[in-house]
Hints:
Layout: H1 3-25, H2 30-33, E1 41-44, E2 47-50, E3 54-61, E4 69-77, E5 90-95, E6 101-107, E7 118-128, E8 131-132, E9 136-142, E10 164-170, E11 182-184, E12 202-203, E13 210-213, E14 216-224, E15 228-231, E16 233-235, E17 241-242, E18 245-252, E19 259-267, H3 270-273, E20 280-285, E21 293-300, E22 308-315, E23 325-332, E24 335-340, E25 343-348, E26 364-372, E27 388-400
Parallel strand pairs: 1-8, 2-9, 12-15
Antiparallel strand pairs: 1-3, 3-6, 4-5, 4-7, 7-9, 10-27, 11-16, 13-14, 14-15, 14-27, 16-26, 17-26, 18-23, 18-27, 19-20, 19-26, 20-21, 21-22, 23-24, 24-25
The protein binds calcium ion (4 copies).
One calcium ion (CA) binds at residues 51, 111, 113, 115, 143, 145.
Amino acid sequence: MDFVKFLEMKIVIFLLLLLFSCTNSSGAGPDDSVPDTPDPKLFIGDASTSEGNRLSFEIRLDKTWEEDVSVDYEVLGGTAEPGKDFENIAGTAVIQAGQKETFITIPTIDDDENEVQEAVIFRINNAINAEISIASAVGVIIDNDDISVDNLEGYTTSENHYGYDLEWGEEFENGLDLNTFSLDIGDGCPDLCGWGNNELQSYTDSENNVFVKDGKLVIRAQKDPINGLTSTRLITKGKKEFTFGRIDIRAKLPEGQGIWPALWMLGTNIDEVGWPNCGEIDIMELVGHEPQKVHGTAHWGPQGSNSTFISGTQSFEQKYSENFHVFTLLWQEDLLKWYMDEQLFHTITPANVTNTVYPFNDPFYLLFNLAIGGNWPGNPDDTTMFPQEMQVDYIRVFQEK
Ligand SMILES: [Ca+2]
Ligand SMILES: [Ca+2]
Ligand SMILES: [Ca+2]
Ligand SMILES: [Ca+2]
């Protein structure tokens, strides 16, 4: 065999080997060489509307498809009640061949009842010609009713709310429960003299300053020649701590220069991370020289110049000392909403918290106190009448089922 023939033979063997290996590596059969185009994916979007209008849920595909896509839908009560807050209809949605989306609209019901924000759950299942990627969405219903306060009874909220369980409640029918509340005593010294705000009062556990009467907790600010300025501060630290829910506190507030009642919360990790890193949620504060205005505030961020707070206020035609009102915090993951008599007046989300971690998705405890003097209200003067009382009729903490 001459060299040229040897070379030709090697080339032929090489080509044969190449052909063989290509045929072999192409797999088991012709079906696999042209993979199936996967079905389109289905998504649904959240919706929001004011009471009486329709919630419009978008059902969309990630691409157009050559066949009709259909999917069953249903709408369930979350914290909104079927038949009362919305019409709980179900059916089948169809996205026509060549189209990318359709909308299902759910009527909400316009009642006369004053309510906080409520939500429905919109769900899809049993898709044909598509694969479900997002199966459930939330529809938020915003109330449109005004406050009506009974001038004799004040405002009150329902003992139960659809979609929630009562996690714990205190109606103050049986005295002050020390399994729930502890008392902070003194003037805050030496660690936090004046309780961090140059307040003047000394907190006591005396029956002159704190007692339960006629189903109400009373915290009374006193001024007398022997004890000076005294009041009370109750906390639930280590006893009642919780994360998320609807918190209703019904209270009647004091008034006058230098009087500062507060219903508020602190993060349970305060001893590890300090204030305001732990987060502070002021459900209600009032400074007594502005007796027709309440404030809701969140504080966060590292101590010092980078600490941050944002407040909202709710004014009322009467003084808050004239009647009972209900202060509600709607607290969800990444959402805080403040209501006075179920009227929204303040909202905080992580979008507000830009300089540090968002501390409001962790457990908190409650504080009720009535301060006298301090940086914010200033000190009492000759116009301030003592004693002054904050009365709390109930606190109810509800959590979503
Ligand atoms: Ca409702
Ligand atoms: Ca209405
Ligand atoms: Ca309503
Ligand atoms: Ca009560």
